[in-house]
Amino acid sequence: MKQTFFFFAFSLSLNAQSITSDQIDKLTFRNIGPAVAGGRIHDVEVVPNKPEIVFIASASGGIWKSTSKGTMWKPVFDNEIVSSFGDMAISQSNSNIIYAGTGEQQNRQSTTWGNGMYKSMDQGETWSSIGLEKTYHIGKVIVHPKNPNIVYVAALGNLWKESKDRGVYKTSNGGRSWKKILYIDQFTGAITIEMDKNDPNVLYAATYQRMRKVWGFNGGGSGSGIYKTTNGGNTWKNLSKGLPPGNKGRIGLSASRTRSNVIYATIEHADSSGFYRSGNGGSSWKRMNKLNPRPMYYSHIFVDPN
User: Fold this and answer.
1) What is the DSSP letter of 149?
2) What is the rounded CA–CA span in Å between residue 229 and residue 122?
3) Which tens digits make up the pLDDT trace of 229-288?
């Protein structure tokens, strides 16, 4: 056994000495894992009117772009210092403009944080940092359908400690400056935002109270809820009629793309978790069923656009 090991080590030594820099330069990388926790994709975006161009934003692997409907992909964010993403949005009025929010949404010990918002002016080929560096985790990005300079961001904030860098933020100048337009407290961030199909000044936001410590996770509290603005974020109203009382956990939202004032929600709750619907712009809610599997980890809803 000792002789075999000596021969193996001696062979490695000889091979290592024979490798040149030219040979190393010709090596290419391939994905070898991690197989369990590293493959999460948080967002898929398709360029309006160009379905062959697709972007994906991953939990820890950057942003990838395909111009062949997903047949081939290339990384487009490798030159930046962060690789974790929660959401991205392509402007409907100018598809060259893309906004990306860094820091994944999930609550696991393996969750990777980010450093704010990024913007691309050339359909993802190059990127620039545009602020909100201390938000750590971004849940949703929405761009005004007619003005690409107006953007709303749902910021969860630091998963591991109290922070005032949470809530809903808005820029009206393409990211040169930001204003916090909805804030609950240092424990509660915003997990998602939805915009009404007919009026871009009408938005719904879901807040989420969460905190992870070394010894455990506290997901939920009095800060979690659903809010609505009818004036682009200047004022907000809490929507609670028909929703379960008391502490709530993670909430998912999705507004109808065909009917104004119709909005759906998944609610994490100790006694009344499930799928809720409002047909009057959130003034009241009705529990449709108990469906809400593993709410703290996913809680996304997508309504058929047709």
Assistant:
1) T
2) 32
3) 999 999 999 999 999 999 999 999 999 999 999 999 999 999 999 999 999 999 999 999
- Burial (Cβ within 10 Å: 0-12, 13-18, ≥19) of residue 88: buried
**CB-CB neighbours of 171 under 10 Å:** 21
Give per-residue pLDDT as tens, 77-95. 999 999 999 999 999 999 9
Superfamily covering domain 39-244: YVTN repeat-like/Quinoprotein amine dehydrogenase (2.130.10.10)
Strands (E), 202-285: 203-213, 216-219, 225-229, 237-239, 251-255, 263-267, 274-278
Distance between CA atoms of residues 252 and 189, nearest Å: 13
* Element at 8 (helix H, strand E): helix 2-18
Strands (E), 70-173: 74-75, 85-90, 98-102, 117-120, 128-129, 138-143, 151-155, 167-171
Rg (CA), the chain: 22
**Which residue reads 């620039």 in tokens?**
128
With 0-12 CB in 10 A as exposed, 13-18 as middle and 19+ as buried, what is 230? middle
- What is the H or E stretch that residue 54 is in? strand 54-58
Give the amino acid at 197: K
- The structure tokens 């449709």 sit at 288
Measure the N-to-C terminal CA separation of the chain; round to a whole number of Å.
69
pTM: 0.87
